[in-house]
Amino acid sequence: MIKSIVYLLSVIGLLFAVLVLTGYWNQNDHYEGIASGNGRVETTQVDITAKYGGRLTEIYVHEGDMVEKGQLLAQLDTRELEAQYRVTLAGIEQARENRKYAQAVVAQREIDLQQAERDYLRSKTLFESKSIALVQLEKDETEYQRAEAALMAAKAQVTNGEAAINAAKAQAESIKVQLEENRLYAPVKGRVLYRLAEEGEMIGNGGRVLVVLDLIDTYMTIFLPTSQVGRINIGSEARIVLDALPNTPIPARVSFISPEAQFTPKEIETATEREKLMFRVKVKIMPELLQRHLEKIKSGLPGVAYVKMNETMPWPESLRMKDSNGSQP
Fold it and tell me: Residue 197 maps to which CATH number?
């Protein structure tokens, strides 16, 4: 009985070892001069947030929808702002009318000044010829000075009117910007990942409404040891092979190498590898390829990224790009 149990356990252990080793080496093939690491396809997430708080009146997209850059995604209630905008526009018109009135007053004060100046100069000539008394000269001089002051005051009113117009215009522009900020547009071309709010809900300043995937920025993060990181560079050629598409290598390039070493996260590497300090490396899929297959991009898919440590070496047979007929270019 004991021998049977031992034999059974030995067979189970052997089968388990074969499965583990076979699965591991099939999933993460090793090639001379090529660094590799396991990871998952990731896509940059862009939060669509409201700058100003308010009530959501419309959300035009749903989770999974493809959106274009600049597309209107959601709308907040703007009735109060629109009323303020109309009041401000009316204030601008009123300020313009006030400026017209001030300009008319300036014209009148210029005429008054010209008349006062002529009266003063005439009185001065008559006084010098002893034809009028000093009192009359002083009276005309005072009127002349009063006319000068009145003209200056009228010109100041014109300046104030122009300032009032500019202030009202600035206020209108500010409200117009707020109105535009209450319309939420897609900053990138991509896919709606999450719809975090619903129509009729109140959201605060900076509240998140949607999350959009920037599909053009799709990559895989892997962790490599110092011996391999020292032999790759930003821009190094790479390939990504997904578990779901083991015979279709995806062209990519290294877009980021961490300047600091770190322990590899548990969920990605084996226990042995976690004992070593590793460098985080981001391998980004070529944008031109993503542009042609936007609707097929799926984040979260597991796979392996391969990075050339020697740019002069050709890719192994299994990692070479193939054309639509399945042959190598």
Answer: 2.40.50.100
Structural domain includes residue 18: no
* Confidence bin at 303 (pLDDT 50/70/90): very high
Q: Specify whether 102 is located in the same domain as 225.
A: no
**Confidence (pLDDT) at 298:** 86
What pTM did the predictor assign? 0.69
pLDDT > 90? residue 104: yes
Q: CB burial class (10 A; 0-12, 13-18, 19+) of residue 110?
A: middle
Cα 220 from Cα 25, distance rounded (Å): 20
Least confident among 47-51, 199-203, 323-327: 323-327
What gap in Å lies between CA 118 and CA 312, rounded to an integer?
Answer: 96
Length of the chain: 329
The residues, ordered by sequence, that sit 6+ positions from 123 with a Cβ below 8 Å of its Cβ are 132, 136, 137, 139, 140, 141
- Domain assignment present for residue 59? The answer is yes
Specify if 325 maps to a domain.
no
Residue 240 CA to residue 31 CA, distance in Å, equals 14
